[in-house]
Design brief:
Layout: H1 5-17, E1 36-38, E2 45-48, E3 61-63, E4 70-72, E5 76-81, E6 89-92, E7 99-106, E8 113-121, E9 126-132, E10 138-144, E11 156-159, E12 168-174, E13 178-183, E14 191-194, E15 211-219, H2 224-228, H3 230-238, E16 251-262, E17 267-271, E18 281-283, H4 299-302, H5 356-359, H6 382-397, H7 413-424
Antiparallel strand pairs: 1-17, 2-16, 3-6, 4-5, 5-16, 6-15, 7-12, 7-16, 8-9, 8-15, 9-10, 10-11, 12-13, 13-14, 17-18
Helix pairs in contact: 1-7, 3-6, 6-7
The structure holds 2-acetamido-2-deoxy-beta-D-glucopyranose (6 copies).
The site of one 2-acetamido-2-deoxy-beta-D-glucopyranose has 3 residues, from loops.
GO molecular function: glycosyltransferase activity; hydrolase activity, hydrolyzing O-glycosyl compounds
Protein name: Putative glycosidase
InterPro entries: Beta-glucanase-like, ConA-like_dom_sf, Glycosyl_Hydrlase_16
Length: about 425
């Protein structure tokens, strides 16, 4: 769900008036929401964008409103921006409950342009890779928990060569115990975030609910006016300055392929309570049809079924029933156990829950893109910059705002700015 610019403008006004909420179609920590169709643990869901023909969304993927894509055999998916409101974004139609995601991509160069590859849940947990088009020397990792954007000290910039001019493999390994980010291999993570890392506030801010995978390219700084406007200044600095749309300038992020493995049982994932805790997440496939990864079953191909959920063809699955498709909230099977605990309970030796790594400061060769946690940015306004940076990262994915102020959540100035920024860049995705 995405706002039109007109809507965004209206909402922006409302925003400036005071109060809004971070946007999600339905936040299961606040009310009862439809369940999430899960890819499931049958087999990886792979998409080779170099073999997609036409411009429709490939099987298992959904376009954000306003998104147009093209595909070619050399570069795969082309996330092309040619106007300041461009924000091509695609997301998986289904969710994963822990698992691995690996993509081969080339982020978009260009001052003011931000490319992103993120995992995001209905209650706004988030695991991010982001690239600033002005920074060819590093890639940013980040995370958020339950939509909490009150701190922006979680981003780390990892030095890599040709961050936005070269192809790399970017991996995320996500379990209930840790998140690991890898570049170009699955051996040495560039970052490990343990569940109990201090920045997760005793795990409460650790990403742990069913996630969709989203890929997108957007404008972090639209023009000189945005750079001058106090509300967008911080993000503009973070993005390296205004993007240029002179002449026929355009900016493309390319993605050749992506491989997604869901560690969960598939079926329908539901939040059995409002804690947003991993052990509250239930799968309708618990039991017979779960864990039998050898079985050619069900969930494996359900990725192609998109909305039709759990093609749990293996009829046996007790209660997984057919009820789930319409997004009813209670698809959990009788006697279901927790999804989360499967296959993820062991922490590899290298993954000791030391917090050291997670807080390491990556040095960056790019301009103005040092580790935000230090606040020692080159941009003078340390705090503002880092706020904007982290925030905008959140806003990329977190379609900020909604006109519905049902929530009484009050936001501070910084957050309002952040949300305004989210709107300002027109990146309002669902
Ligand atoms: C949000 O995060 C901040 C800083 O990490 C923390 O102090 C605060 O308690 C969190 N808020 C909630 C509601 O968890
Ligand atoms: C974590 O930190 C240790 C010691 O500080 C270092 O040896 C190791 O390479 C680091 N691992 C990662 C993934 O950064
Ligand atoms: C993605 O493309 C890269 C480069 O062509 C290739 O090495 C890798 O095996 C591909 N991955 C998948 C899952 O197809
Ligand atoms: C994720 O990758 C790790 C490391 O390669 C592997 O041990 C684990 O089984 C994978 N998990 C899934 C769900 O594919
Ligand atoms: C659920 O567990 C109860 C008690 O252990 C048992 O009587 C019942 O048959 C189980 N139901 C299913 C569907 O397995
Ligand atoms: C980033 O930090 C490193 C080390 O702290 C410093 O040498 C470098 O000048 C900084 N770069 C910017 C752009 O601030």
């Amino acid at each position: 769900m995405r706002f039109t610019i007109a809507t965004a403008t209206a909402v922006l006004s409302a925003l400036q008036a005071a109060n809004a909420q971070t946007f999600t179609a339905c936040d299961p920590t606040k009310k009862t929401c439809p369940g999430d169709s899960g890819i499931g643990n049958g087999k990886p869901f792979n998409t080779d964008f170099t073999s997609v023909s036409g411009t429709d969304a490939p099987t298992g993927w959904t376009y954000a409103d306003g998104t147009t894509m093209s595909y070619d055999s050399a570069n795969g998916a082309n996330f092309k921006i040619s106007t300041k409101t461009g924000a091509p974004t695609i997301s998986t139609s289904q969710y994963i409950m822990f698992g691995n995601v690996s993509t081969y991509a080339k982020a978009s160069p260009g001052t003011g342009i931000v490319s992103s590859f993120i995992l995001e849940s209905d209650d706004l947990d988030e695991i991010d890779w982001e690239w600033l088009g002005s920074n060819d020397g590093s890639v940013e990792s980040n995370f958020f928990g339950k939509g909490n954007v009150t701190t922006y000290d979680r981003a780390i910039y990892h030095p890599i060569s040709q961050a936005v001019t070269g192809w790399h493999t970017y991996n995320i390994e996500w379990t209930k115990d840790y998140v690991k980010w890898y570049v170009d291999d699955m051996v040495t993570p560039v970052r490990i975030l343990a569940y109990d890392d201090p920045k997760t506030i005793k795990g409460t801010q650790f990403p742990q609910t069913p996630m969709k995978i989203k890929l997108g390219n957007w404008v972090g700084c639209a023009d000189a006016a945005a750079a001058a406007d106090p509300k967008t200044q911080g993000t503009c600095q973070w993005a390296g300055g205004p993007a240029s749309f002179d002449g026929s300038a355009s900016y493309s992020m390319y993605v050749k392929n992506i491989s997604i493995s869901d560690a969960g049982c598939g079926g329908t994932y539901t939040y059995s309570d409002m804690t947003g805790s991993f052990d509250s997440i239930k799968s309708s496939n618990e039991g017979a049809s779960c864990g039998s990864s050898s079985s050619p079953s069900s969930s494996a191909d359900s990725s192609s079924a998109a909305s039709s959920t759990t093609a749990s063809g293996t009829a046996s699955s007790t209660a997984s029933a057919s009820t789930v498709s319409s997004g009813t909230t209670t698809a959990s099977a009788p006697n279901s156990t927790t999804t989360a605990s499967i296959s993820t309970s062991t922490v590899p030796a290298g993954a000791s829950p030391s917090s050291g790594n997670a807080t390491a400061t990556g040095s960056s060769s790019g301009s103005g893109s040092n580790d935000t946690s230090t606040g020692s940015g080159s941009t003078g306004t340390g705090a503002t910059t880092s706020n904007a940076g982290g925030a905008s990262s959140s806003s990329t994915s977190t379609p900020q705002i909604t006109a519905n102020s049902a929530s009484s959540h009050k936001y501070g100035t910084v957050e309002l700015v952040v949300m305004a920024l989210g709107l300002g860049v027109g990146y309002l995705v669902m």
